[in-house]
């Protein structure tokens, strides 16, 4: 936090004060941290080398997968940004904040939003990645989200004017919906969600609407696990096996396989203990059949991630995804230390705090090597954004949707009246966030070029994906 804007006032939720009193308290914080201060970005003279941060964040990862990580980040400045949450966390720690803390996503970029089915089979739009979730300044999520729109917009060859507009709409939507949530009770906020079909219908581009409606229909046509089972497995005697696609999906070596499966069975039993009793009963109908390593995403490449196949006695499958849970990149830059020793538990609780509805199989476990994991269904009617087909007006609509989803998530653990009072009804905050986003897009490009130089010098390994 920049010292000249440091705010030591108590901004925890006050259930005794009225909404109006908390709103006024929010407006008073502007005197300490002006909203215009959020437009600022300039790297300090002692800014940590971004390549050094990448190298440090690779410690403890599977070394043979690191070349894939850097190869993916090389694809564009936007791909680099997706894998560089640790770099931006260090930078955000140097920016002004209002002192209002709540549960953060931590890696709040536009590809970490999308549609999915709730346990009640309703399709909603929400944040869907919480590896870095941690309590911290609310501005950090909004700045990373808005900057992702500016950076993705440049990748799509939109003008800087367009890119600034995308970032502005993300922040403006956040403001408007936070104001709406400030009028609701805590229970009403907890019940709130964003209906995916209704959200798509709000758009004015008929072509893109039809595209997304077809995607929803296709995603909902089959039971997700049965569809994946047909694509991802083969039969080996009485046992179903996950198909390999090296280096992205693979089994441990034959020598290690029995040991790994035994460890997986132990971790699975531990995972079951983290679930509510009703889900334990449900999953007790299934037996662990196979486990494979699966390389996922950009920022997660090199961590221990994979899929496990469970089968019932009558042949029905369930695929679970396990992801290694490391310390949040935010923790090193905040005074408050995590109340959760188990990093998987940290992620699960953070996700349940922020999402309108979480995966019913969401749980955690650890292995004998002291690695922490969180576990969820592999896919369940997931609908991801397709940036490649978006026109400028579609990017604006998507920015509004993401800003809305972030406001809803923040309103659950934060104080929407206090936040709404600080943000105000005008455009000052959105203007500041939009300016910051363009400045940070410039910084991201400079860091991306530094990474390319480090690769040329051999400091970072790369290899083509197969």
UniProtKB/TrEMBL annotation:
InterPro entries: DUF2252. It comes from the Bacteria. Pfam families: DUF2252 (PF10009). This is DUF2252 domain-containing protein.
């Amino acid at each position: 936090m920049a010292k000249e804007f440091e705010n030591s006032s108590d901004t925890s939720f006050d259930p005794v004060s009225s909404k109006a009193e908390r709103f006024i308290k929010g407006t008073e914080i502007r005197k300490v941290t002006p909203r215009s201060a959020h437009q600022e970005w300039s790297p300090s003279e002692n800014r940590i080398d971004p390549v050094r941060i990448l190298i440090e964040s690779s410690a403890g990862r599977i070394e043979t997968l690191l070349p894939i990580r850097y190869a993916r980040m090389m694809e564009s400045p936007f791909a680099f940004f997706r894998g560089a949450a640790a770099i931006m966390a260090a930078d955000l720690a140097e920016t002004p904040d209002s002192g209002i803390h709540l549960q953060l996503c931590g890696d709040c970029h536009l590809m970490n939003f999308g549609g999915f089915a709730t346990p009640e089979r309703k399709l909603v739009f929400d944040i869907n990645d919480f590896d870095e979730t941690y309590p911290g300044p609310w501005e950090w999520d909004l700045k990373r989200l808005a900057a992702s729109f500016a950076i993705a917009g440049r990748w799509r060859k939109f003008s800087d004017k367009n890119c600034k507009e995308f970032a502005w709409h993300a922040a403006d939507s956040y403001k408007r919906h936070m104001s709406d949530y400030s009028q609701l009770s805590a229970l009403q906020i907890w019940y709130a969600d964003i209906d995916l079909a209704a959200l798509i219908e709000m758009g004015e581009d008929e072509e893109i609407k039809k595209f997304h409606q077809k995607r929803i229909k296709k995603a909902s046509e089959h039971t997700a696990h049965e569809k994946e089972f047909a694509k991802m497995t083969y039969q080996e005697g009485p046992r179903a096996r996950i198909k390999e696609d090296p280096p992205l999906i693979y089994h441990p070596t034959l020598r290690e396989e029995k040991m790994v499966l035994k460890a997986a069975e132990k971790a699975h039993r531990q995972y079951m203990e983290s679930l509510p009793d009703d889900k334990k009963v449900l999953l007790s109908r299934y037996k662990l059949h196979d486990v494979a390593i699966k390389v996922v995403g950009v920022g997660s490449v090199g961590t221990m991630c994979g899929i496990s196949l469970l089968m019932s006695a009558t042949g029905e499958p369930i695929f679970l995804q396990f992801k290694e849970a490391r310390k949040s990149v935010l923790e090193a830059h905040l005074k408050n230390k995590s109340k959760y020793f188990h990093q998987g538990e940290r992620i699960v609780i953070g996700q349940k705090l922020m999402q309108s509805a979480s995966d019913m199989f969401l749980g955690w476990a650890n292995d004998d090597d002291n690695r922490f994991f969180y576990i969820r269904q592999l896919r369940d009617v997931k609908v991801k954004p397709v940036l490649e087909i978006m026109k400028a007006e579609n990017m604006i609509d998507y920015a509004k949707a993401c800003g809305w989803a972030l406001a809803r998530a923040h309103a659950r653990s934060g104080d929407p009246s206090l936040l709404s009072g600080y943000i105000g009804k005008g455009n000052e905050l959105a203007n500041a966030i939009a300016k910051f986003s363009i400045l940070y897009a410039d910084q991201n490009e400079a860091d991306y070029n530094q990474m390319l130089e480090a690769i040329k010098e051999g400091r970072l390994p790369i290899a083509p994906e197969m």
